[in-house]
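1st attempt posting a full record on here, be nice pls
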Amino acid sequence: MNIRISNNWCWGVSYGWWYSGGDKLPCVTKPGTWSGWPADVELPPGDWSSNHSSYYDTDAVRFYRGCVTKWHYWGLSGQTTDRRGKSSLWLKLFDTDHVYIDSITC
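the predicted structure (as tokens):
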């Protein structure tokens, strides 16, 4: 299944690594846009954000509400984010972060 990524992070809304305010980041004004900023898109399976010029510096990834996502940082052990019965959760990505989504179960 697709994952949602953003090329912007809403520092005024969340000063930490996580934002749990819903399916969309409030600072994104161009949802679904591959060539703009601040935007977010659905990245299909097997694709990489670095394949798209406006997402060479991806700032956030969404963990879907109602789903369990298994994922890992490059070179580190796996993580599980359980959003069953909860809203979507966004994770802030920093410059050298590489996040891999291993599976999503909804």
